[in-house]
Design a protein that fits this description.
With 386 residues, the chain is an alpha/beta fold. It folds into two domains: 17-338, TIM Barrel; 351-386, no CATH class. The protein has 17 helices and nine strands. It has helices at 35-44, 51-54, 66-79, 85-101, 117-120, 123-141, 157-168, 196-204, 219-229, 244-253, 261-266, 278-283, 295-298, 302-311, 317-330, 335-350, 370-384; strands spanning 22-28, 104-111, 144-152, 178-184, 208-209, 212-213, 233-236, 256-259, 288-290. The strands form two sheets. It has a five-stranded parallel β-sheet with strand order 1-2-3-4-5, sandwiched between helices. Helix 10 links the parallel strand 7 (233-236) and strand 8 (256-259). The radius of gyration is 20 Å and the shape is globular. It starts with 21 loop residues before the first strand and ends with a helix. Bound molecules: zinc ion. Zinc ion is lined by residues 26, 28, 184, 212, 235, 293.
Length: 386
């Protein structure tokens, strides 16, 4: 069954999820683009991109193993359009702008600098460009953009160590600093234990360990990732839901899960959004941070993930606020930033529920929030914006 795109269900009777402060902890650099930006870059460089990339719904394929290979081919085609420092800066700026518009107060964007290094004189300049762009985008768009440097499972583990040493030089928790070290690409490839050395280097530098795991492989591999890489957060980790004991271990160890429902469905991990075990994970006490992964390929951004939680999984506004709190707590932001964003969540939830508004307010010409809602919006905005 093809993936079902999350729809905008915002009505006058619901709190606006775009105003709910949240942290976005799973977004890849190239995959963060929207189609107009990719089209623009491709045109500037005279590159023809597969029509599947720019004509929407690029992964509408049966939920089989084909999903990953098609994804990888299209991702590589998109990456081939990124050929200059200016391109790299535009990507970070657009990601921050789009995230901020969806209520994200903290974005931790993930980048493997290796692919862009040839165009900017090496992996060190590639990382520094992303960090500098993250600082500029934070100031321009009123959110914090931290960076996760990610190694690839498809490359040699010694490459991962080199990246970890590089990432360590820029460690911090603020905008334009490296906040964590990741491991991405096809989970079925490579020996996870061989990457333990890279994660040791990263951890010694104070970086959080945020590898992918528990997406294309099941509980056994999640256990391996826990044993070998000692993650602070897991990219995806949804397959841990298949083993209650393992899930309990994740909860006990405080390992947060970056859950990306649209990605899971597009890659055939689950046949439909309703099958993503969001409830199972939350009910078990797991700390869940919803993420978009690669909006360019999955056709859904951060807000769509929260709308899915509301419309497909039936989360109430209180439950959605808890998801947002969970994302903020799982972020690597400073205590001060976390407190500010959490206060914004409280203000969002404390605002009058538009569903309780009188008949004169609901659906009136003042728009989605009614009079009380507008006051509340202003209160939330005051807390969210700096
Ligand atoms: Zn990912």
């Amino acid at each position: 069954m093809p993936p079902r795109r999350a729809r905008r269900w915002q009505t006058a009777e619901m709190r606006d999820l775009a105003l709910l402060p949240k942290a976005h902890l799973h977004l890849h650099f190239t995959g963060s683009m929207d189609v107009p930006l990719l089209r623009q870059m491709a045109a500037e460089h005279g590159i023809r991109v597969p029509s599947a990339l720019v004509d929407a719904d690029p992964l509408r394929v049966p939920a089989t193993a084909r999903g990953w290979f098609r994804f990888q081919r299209l991702y590589d085609a998109a990456r081939a359009c990124v050929r200059s420092e200016a391109d790299m800066r535009r990507i970070v700026d657009a990601a921050a702008r789009l995230d901020a518009a969806e209520g994200s107060g903290r974005l931790e964007i993930q980048v493997d600098p290796t692919s862009y290094a040839p165009f900017v004189g090496g992996i060190t300049p590639a990382v520094e460009i992303v960090l500098d762009a993250a600082r500029a985008a934070s100031a321009a768009h009123g959110l914090e953009v931290g960076v996760v440097v990610a190694a690839s499972r498809m490359k040699h583990p010694l490459d991962a160590r080199t990246l970890a040493r590089l990432a360590a030089r820029y460690a911090g928790d603020g905008p334009g600093e490296v906040v964590g070290f990741g491991l991405s690409n096809d989970e079925r490839h490579g020996d996870t234990s061989a990457f333990a050395g890279a994660f040791r280097i990263a951890r010694r530098a104070g970086l959080a360990a945020v590898p992918h795991g528990g997406e294309l492989l099941g509980p056994d591999h999640v256990a391996t990732v826990l044993d070998e890489l000692h993650p602070d957060r897991l990219g995806h980790g949804v397959r841990a839901s298949e083993d209650p004991a393992l899930l309990a271990r994740l909860v006990d160890d405080g390992v947060a899960l970056e859950v990306c429902p649209s990605s899971n469905v597009s890659l055939g991990v689950y046949p439909d959004l309703a099958d993503v075990p969001l409830r199972t994970l939350v009910d078990a006490g797991a700390q869940v941070a919803l993420g978009a992964d690669d909006p360019l390929l999955f056709g859904a951004r951060l807000l769509d993930q929260y709308e899915t939680a509301r419309t497909v999984h039936g989360f109430s506004d209180a439950g959605l606020a808890d998801l947002a709190r969970s994302s903020i707590r799982a972020s690597l932001a400073s205590p001060g930033t976390k407190a500010r964003l959490l206060a914004g969540v409280d203000a969002w939830l404390a605002a009058p529920d538009p569903a309780d508004a009188g008949p004169g307010d609901a659906g009136s010409s003042v728009g989605r929030s009614g009079v009380g809602g507008r006051r509340a919006d202003a209160a939330v905005a005051a807390v969210t914006n700096r």
